[in-house]
Amino acid sequence: MPNRLDDDEIDRRLPDDWEREGDEIVRVYTFDDYLDGVTFATQVAEVADEEFHHPEIRIRYDEVEVRLTSHEAGGITDADVRLAGLFDAER
């Protein structure tokens, strides 16, 4: 099981444009239209499945919100921060 990161490490390692909300890290990606967002959400889902670490994904008209946490560790871990960086690379 991955170890939960402490507050200082989360602050130091959190990728740009991601925010911390309690025990999750969150980013909202914006798109010109709905289908671009759906395509991105599919790419995120494929990466997450390969990594076997699955985020919560919310698709709205011109936004996709991604939330990451490690439930088994009770908070944010290295896996969450690393996956956030992989998702950003898909954008």
Protein architecture, described:
With 91 residues, the chain is an alpha+beta fold. The protein has one domain: Transcriptional coactivator/pterin dehydratase (Gyrase A, domain 2). 42% of the residues lie in helices and 22% in strands. A hairpin with a 3-residue loop joins strand 3 and strand 4 (63-68). Helix 2 packs across helix 3 (78-90). The longest helix is centred in the middle third of the chain and has 18 residues, at 34-51. The chain starts with 6 loop residues before the first helix and ends with a helix. 20% of the residues are buried. The mean pLDDT is 96.
Specify the overall morphology.
globular
The total domain count is 1
**pLDDT below 50 for ≥5 consecutive residues: which ranges?**
none
> What name does CATH use for the topology?
Gyrase A, domain 2
Sheet with most strands: 4 strands, antiparallel
> What's the average pLDDT?
96
Would you identify the CATH architecture? 2-Layer Sandwich
Order of helices and strands: HEEHEEH
Radius of gyration: 13 Å
Please count the beta strands (DSSP E, at least 2 residues each): 4
Structural class: alpha+beta
Q: Residue share in helices?
A: 40-55%
Distance between the ends: 29 Å
* Number of contiguous helices: 3
CATH class: Alpha Beta
Give the name of the CATH superfamily. Transcriptional coactivator/pterin dehydratase
